[in-house]
Specification:
Arc Repressor Mutant, subunit A, Tetracycline Repressor, domain 2, 10 helices, globular
Amino acid sequence: MPRKRRPGRPSTADQDPEAIRRDILVAARKEFVEHGLDGARVDRIATRAGVNKRLLYHYVGNKETLYSHVLLQAYRDIRAGEEELCLASLPPVEAMSRLVAFTFDHFHENPWFIRLLSTENIQRARYVREIPELQSLHSPIIGEIARILKEGLEQGVFHRDVDPVQLYITMAGMSYFYFSNIHTLAVVFGKPLATDEAMAERRAHAVEVMIAYLRAERDLPENNH
C-alpha cells in the first residue's frame, strides 16, 4: 500500500512546480491583505498553501520577496485583463468605454487589490520601486490610451488632447475611491452602495463621465485685451 503524503508536505515529484508557486502566491496575497506586510507570517502562508516553509523558501523566497512577487502578479493580472479587451479593434468611444468599465469591474471583482495597494502606499512604494518589470508593464496600456485618444481626435469624436497618464489616473481613481470608501460613503449619504443596482449605476456613471469629458469642447481662454 503506498504511503500517504503528510498534509503540508507535498512531494515535488508529482506536482507541477508552477502550480505550487501559484498556490504559494495566492496564499501570500491573502495573508498580506489580511495582516499587512509587518503582520504577515511565513508559517501561516505555508499552511494556507499546503506546503512546508522549506518549499516556500525554495520556490519563492523570504517574506519580503514573497510580497514583491505578490505585487508584481497583481499588476500582471490587470495588464493581462486589459490585453484581452482587444481595444485596437474598437472605435475610440467604444474602446475607452470598455477600458473604463473593465477598470471598474477589476476593482469590484478583486477587492483584495485595493487593500494590497493601500499596504504598499503605507510603505511609500518601497517595494514597488524595486520591481524592474513594473515600468514595462504599464507602458503598453499608457501607449494604448494615447493611441485611442489620438484616433479619437483625428476622427473628431474627442476634443481634448489629454496626457494619457493623467487620464489613466482619473479613470482608476473613479473606481478606486468608490470601492475603497464604499462603507463610509454608504453611511454618510444614507444610500446602499454595495447592491448590484448601485454598482451598475456607478459603473455607467464612470463611463459616462469619461466619455463626456473627452467629447466636450475645450473652452478657449478669454482675451483680456
